[in-house]
Amino acid sequence: MIKRTKVASAINLAVVSSIAAGAFVASSAFAAEETAKVERIEVTGSRIQRQDMETASPVTVIDAAAIKAEGFTSVDQMLQVQTSMAGAAVGSTTNNGADGVAQVDLRGMGSQRTLVLLNGRRMVNSGSGADSAVDLNSIPVAMIARVEILKDGASAVYGSDAIAGVVNIITKKDFEGFQFDMNGSGTDKGDGQSGDVSALYGFNTDGGNYTFGAAYSDRRGVIQGDRDWYDPLDNTSSIIPTGTLNQKVIDANGNWVKRTETYDYSNDVYFQTPSERRSLFANMTQELGNDVVLTADAIYTNRRSNQQLAAQPAQIKLNVCGDPRVQDPTAGCLTLDQGMIDAGIKADARGQVQYNRRMNDVGPRIYNQDTDTWRLSAGLAGSLDVHTGMNWNVDYTFGKNEAKTGVDNSINATLMANSIYADPYAWFEGSPLTDDMKDVSYQQQSTGGNEQQTLSAGLNGELFDLSAGAVGFAIGAEYRRESGFYNPDPVVVAGDSTAAQQDPTSGNYNVISIFEEVSVPFTEKLTGEFALRLDDYSTFGKATTWKIGLTYTATDELMVRTVAATGFRAPSVAELYGGNSGSFDYLTNPWLPASEQTGQILVNRTSDPDLKPEESESYTAGLVYSPSYIDGMSITLDYWRFKVTDAIARADVQVGLDACHAGDAEACSTFNITADGDLFNLTSALTNVGSQDTSGIDFNLAYNFELFGLDWKVSNDTTYLIKFEQDGENYTGTIDGNMGAYARVRNNFSISAGQDDWSVMYFNRYIRSMTDVYTDYDANDNPFVAVRGVDSILYHNISGTYHVSDNTTVSLGVKNLTDEKPLYVTNGSDAGTVPQVYDTVGRTIYGGVTVKF
């Protein structure tokens, strides 16, 4: 939806300060000198100041009031329910592999392809180290004035990463007085409590304003086993606490037999992960004289988060004594006795047997993160008495993220193997581990971080007049340096852990950019917007991007708009310098029957310092309609399409496994698989071979009116997905645990009514039915591709706000009012569903109090 408001005129100080504080892009407004009587504003997606917020690019605006009314306690919660999101962005419901990070995923194209700005300037990437996207946990909700979502490719304006669009978070500034907020929530099951408190204080000085804030939030966990809809069969593992040798166990008679038992790990796993955050933030504007203004904003956030998984599913390769195929005969070995041989236990092509054991005797894996994120941005801005007046700015932004991460109850594979060699039947018989045997555990400790420095300068104003108006322009230059590192635990680096081996990551790059924009009023009805940008990277060289936009005001009621643009994404530090790392991916081994599948297979992931940038093309076309015969109504309709080529991606490993099994020699070579199915060196390399092609239609209706003495607001957002293809695979209308959800239709509807002192709102969120494609097995235990349907779902929320007095406001609401249960997905990422798509927590009650002085 396009924000359509009239903004009052401001003094010259506000003109210059808004330019500096927003780096030309915050949706602020100003007036020129009184004699000019011209109101100009700035919008996300352009550096040119203009008289109308309606540009060629579609922008959605979410203000602080809407954030509070819907009970959002984190930025990712607010963004992930937008209809323009797809896929499966990580957040509070991601218990495995996210390290407590929360991200945004516009169009389902990947979080690395959505650029996140804070007050119009880049936010430092953050997480556990060498990260490719912004951790939204580093931005407290308490400091947000509004969020602007640009749903268009914007690399020509902002550079790398803005392929799918831009999320611009605008903080509260120019605040006077004191405000205290306290909010809390919890499920009707008595768990998942969350609370946050924040304070905001601001004051004016002669020619300036200073605003300071602090926020604290605490989110408690929800255990999977505490939900009655949960089926333990959806979270079972073949790796059991008593252990297996080549999937065989010892029965009561001392014989080796096929394993039939499975392990339910639901009581050790979170649906909602705990997190605690502390933040300090500040904004300042100070006039220095001679029409020069100094602006600055600062933020610091500390996040302490946890995730928990079931005890380590240790998978140990044991050398068989006397087998000539053993790679390292000095590493110890296991003698296969006659009982093992009679049961069919034999060595593989490397002279090894597989021992698996769920290490419950040691305890669950408890992941913890302690991250610190700093960001300081400062700038000078002023005006020049040239032509009709021009504005300049110089800005510097520094961002840094540091993280300490750990995993309790990890298992040292080398120590465990030696312990088995020393006394094998103490392990094989399934008895509880002794204290000496438990000494194979250790605590993983890793460190990582990211750093970003940006220096930019710009000039904007009017070039000359045409018969239809002035030609506006903006030019500028920027220098940016990005660096990152990640140091895994030494045991992991050495490959001695039952967790996947991983090499350290360390590297940096810099980029110098020049950019320009021109806005040309060809006629009173037709305006053209043109942008061109050149980026020169220290890694791969130069990238040039452009944008062409047109707006045509057909009538006072109807505006037609279109944008064509190119974009790119530079490879990240981790993609360039990450080295080798292992990942236990959810895969099916086509060489094994269903009874021998372990669910996860170790994949060696490699990076490449010679990666090239991704390239993209985007196109949007639509209209903005405000019918004069229905006062207060506005409608937007936009078609969009994004195409990404040379995408940095890993080829689909499951597809490679299946192709190799079917006799495709090239697939076997690509993934380092032998023809007989040896997956010991199964490899997935980063290359520029990926692609994406997605298109759809966005529709928005906003209607404000009065009826029965009440003020009403109705809003409806719909996204219809026409197509989403990635790497030649069509995911349109499908859902799975790896890619997430690409529903054909997503719809958000809200209606509110109120008077001066109170308001109530009803909100619903609809996700259309999807198909679930998965691997099944026939009567002969042979795998085949199966398809099932996943129903549509509709969530209902209600909330109310009451102004107790001029100083005090209270709010109360319920999310998922009808307690809709998450839908079953055969190959879901967790608990038989996809928690990043469906609500796994259930009905939640929230409320808050705001006090202003």
From TrEMBL:
Gene3D superfamilies: TonB-dependent receptor, beta-barrel domain, TonB-dependent receptor, plug domain
Keyword tRNA processing assigned: no
PROSITE patterns linked: TONB_DEPENDENT_REC_3
Location of the TonB-dependent receptor plug domain: 53-166
Domain TonB-dependent receptor-like beta-barrel: 355-817
Signal peptide: 1-31
Subcellular location field: Cell outer membrane
Gene Ontology CC terms: cell outer membrane; outer membrane
Membrane topology: Multi-pass membrane protein
Highest taxon, organism lineage: Bacteria
Database matches in Pfam families: Plug, TonB_dep_Rec_b-barrel
Swiss-Prot/TrEMBL keywords: Cell outer membrane, Membrane, Receptor, Signal, TonB box, Transmembrane, Transmembrane beta strand, Transport
The family this protein is said to belong to: Belongs to the TonB-dependent receptor family.
Name this polypeptide is given: ArgR-regulated TonB-dependent receptor
Organism: Shewanella oneidensis (strain ATCC 700550 / JCM 31522 / CIP 106686 / LMG 19005 / NCIMB 14063 / MR-1)
